[in-house]
Write a structure and sequence with these properties.
The chain contains 19 helices and twelve strands. The protein is of the alpha/beta class. An eight-stranded mixed beta sheet has the order 5-12-11-6-10-7-9-8, with helices on both faces. Strands 2-3-1-4 form a four-stranded antiparallel beta sheet. α2 runs antiparallel to α7.
């Protein structure tokens, strides 16, 4: 996996990564708290030959000592040494258990013997090490036995002598646990676990998270990348779409890209749909319509989701009379249009019909949309999701353009494919796609290839004077070109 992909996976799962890191730290703290302290005390013995004499004899004695010292290290944990020590100190451990806590080493090419004892109590560790050293000297002296010296004297003695040259002292600090090391290991283990989970999630994830992925998967341009905005629900609908936030700016980009997708043509009838419910199609249709109206384009927003209409509720308009009223011939669409903020015209859904699919696919629906297109430069139609019901498949052929809304990191790729194939089966070619709920503002947004000098917090630039050529150009662009 590339470093960039790994970083993206980690950022996407940053909450889980942080939780795993905290879990690792907690495990390190718990390991430190639950592990009893371990102290180590060490006694040192010197192994020598008790005879003096010529250089050859001394050299022979030295070689004899070096050969013996490794054997004495093995005797430290024998029962001959351990059992008396256990009895003298009143230890509860057996000889085998004591042997597990004792380490006897003889450094290479030396006649030194180190006895190290580990214990949960510092005084007991020191006492045990000293007792083992004392007992070892006795056992070695008994095992070696007296021999006749080679000096020619009549004195007998042992061939080697063990002398305690450094007695063990109670250690001041434990050798374990290591709090800092435990925390570092726990943190690294948590980060490793979190990274593994992030990579696994990335591998198993079938959703689309960037505009590049969406464009490559659908084969159509991504006209809009809408960032997630948790505060959007608290702001009025009109302010959401025409304000200075990154969320509002993304819809201005969508509006501009929609015009450039059909240079020389006005927007016409634009159907906004999605593969599944809850992907943000109604919010996208509403904000796009408001953005078009704010640019000077006469716009009508039609709520054609006759199963779950939501446009009227967003603006606080009347829901009881609307599209279904016109479809059954009880009133003309012009008499049912209501006004929303920003000069936007809204045709609400009306009463819920028992047969929405048949009504939306009828010739009367085509006549209504055609009539609205004659009166308004842009007609934005919010429809039902493509896959759960067939309503949009009957309605979309009446429109000029269709936009597919896809929620980032949620909509499965196969569902997006199924929706595009279903639309293509009825002769509808997508004009483009819109990716909503991007985790970070601007992340995954299309590269427009240009910059602009006004930040979100900067003052609004002054408008051109009335009658100026700039104003006329702006008005013409806002209208989407000559009708």
């Amino acid at each position: 996996m590339e470093a960039r992909t790994l970083l993206r996976a980690a950022l996407r799962s940053r909450i889980a990564l942080a939780l795993c890191a905290l879990l690792g730290i907690a495990a390190g703290v718990a390991a430190t708290a639950l592990t009893p302290p371990r102290y180590e005390a060490r006694a040192q013995l010197f192994v020598s030959t008790p005879w003096g004499g010529e250089a050859g004899q001394l050299q022979q004695g030295s070689a004899f000592t070096l050969a013996r010292v490794q054997s004495y290290a093995s005797l430290v944990t024998s029962r001959q040494v351990a059992d008396p020590v256990i009895g003298d100190l009143g230890l509860t451990a057996t000889a085998e258990e004591l042997a597990e806590r004792v380490t006897a080493t003889a450094p290479l090419d030396t006649v030194l013997l180190h006895i190290t004892v580990a214990d949960t109590e510092a005084p007991r560790a020191a006492a045990t090490a000293n007792a083992l050293a004392d007992r070892l000297t006795e056992v070695v002296e008994r095992l070696e036995g007296p021999v006749r010296p080679t000096t020619g004297t009549e004195r007998f003695g042992t061939p080697v002598r063990l002398t305690v040259v450094q007695r063990a002292a109670p250690p001041a600090t434990p050798v374990s646990p290591h709090p800092v090391a435990n925390l570092v290991v726990g943190l690294l283990a948590g980060l490793l676990l979190g990274t593994g989970l992030a990579v696994l999630r990335q591998r198993l994830d079938t959703s689309l998270t960037t505009t590049a992925q969406l464009a490559a998967h659908t084969g159509v341009p991504v006209l809009g990348a809408i960032p997630a905005d948790p505060e959007a629900a608290q702001r009025p609908t009109g302010e959401n779409a025409t304000g200075r936030s990154p969320w509002a700016e993304s819809f201005r980009h969508l509006r501009t890209n929609l015009r450039f997708a059909r240079i020389g043509e006005r927007p016409g009838i634009v159907v906004v749909t999605s593969a599944l419910p809850g992907e943000g199609k109604t919010g996208t249709a509403t904000a796009l319509a408001l953005s078009l109206a704010a640019s000077g384009t006469s716009t009508c927003l039609v709520d054609a989701d006759l199963r779950r209409p939501g446009v009227a509720t967003r603006f606080g308009l009347v829901q009881d009379a609307g599209l279904t009223t016109a479809l059954i011939g009880q009133a003309e669409p012009a008499d049912l249009v209501q006004r929303a903020p920003g000069g936007l015209a809204v045709l609400a859904g009306g009463p819920l019909p028992p047969n929405p699919g048949e009504l939306l696919a009828s010739a009367r629906m085509g006549e209504i949309l055609s009539g609205l297109a004659d009166r308004y430069e842009a007609v934005v139609v919010d429809t039902a999701p493509v896959l759960p019901v067939a309503d949009t498949l009957g309605l979309a052929p009446h429109a000029h353009h269709t936009l597919l809304v896809v929620q980032a990191a949620r909509t499965p790729r196969d569902r997006v494919t199924a929706a595009t194939e279903a639309l293509a089966a009825v002769g509808v070619r997508l004009l483009g796609a819109v990716l909503t709920q991007l985790p970070d503002a601007g992340r995954g947004a299309p590269d427009h290839g240009y910059g602009y000098g006004y930040g979100y917090g900067d003052p609004v630039p002054p408008r051109p004077r009335a009658g100026s050529g700039a104003e006329e150009a702006d008005r013409t662009a806002g209208a989407g070109g000559p009708r």
